[in-house]
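Open question from group meeting: does this chain pack into something compact, or does most of it stay loose? Before anyone orders reagents, we agreed to write out a predicted structure and look at it together. Recording both the input and the output here so the notebook holds the full record.
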Amino acid sequence: MPRKIISEGKTTAEAIEKGLKTLKLSKENVEIKILENEEKRSFFSILTPRTVKVEITEKENEIKKEKNENKINKLTQNDIDIINNNISNFLSEFANKVENINFTINIEENTAFVELEGETSKKLIGYRGETLNSLQTVISSIANKNLENKAKVIVNISDYREKRKKVLEDVAVKVAKTVIRTGKKITLEPMSAYERKIIHSKLQDHPQINTYSIGEEPYRKVVISKK
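Structure tokens returned:
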């Protein structure tokens, strides 16, 4: 359960600051509701000490949120056949336009793994996987067209996903050490939801580190801070 407290202060800023210190959280990791504003004072309260009250609630853990958002119902055999057919038709046409591209599709439980191979396939990765991520979004949309039970789609080229995951996990560990040493939070560069999840997952059980995301897509970033 998310933690929730009522914090008081002479000003809104002071009340919020006290609450954040009590919860040991940053402002980006909480929701704030002003219960009593210093500007809304009656004539009869003018001689009483000025007090502002705010309600501060810890935001739901990003990993839990992503897990809830990514809940997928079990696929039926008919769903699997349709998904396989949708992806195959699209990639067959795509392969005709992009020379020397082959593909394989493997559906396990609720996930369709699509592997692209060939001489020109690496050109589809793009800078830090941007082109690959865009292609994955397109294929996911096509695969799940008109289906009630949706499948997760992961598109890979030359083991790029595995290599990128290793790089991101190494970055997460290195940055966490810096945050612990300096006590200052660090904001990473914008990442896709898939890559942010790798960072969150790597550090979710760290006893000294918190992670959360800020900003709007496609510029959403992971912040690594000390608990």
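Observations to bring back to the group:
Strands lie at 4-9, 30-36, 52-58, 102-108, 111-117, 152-157, 186-187, 209-214, 221-226.
The two ends are 17 Å apart (CA to CA).
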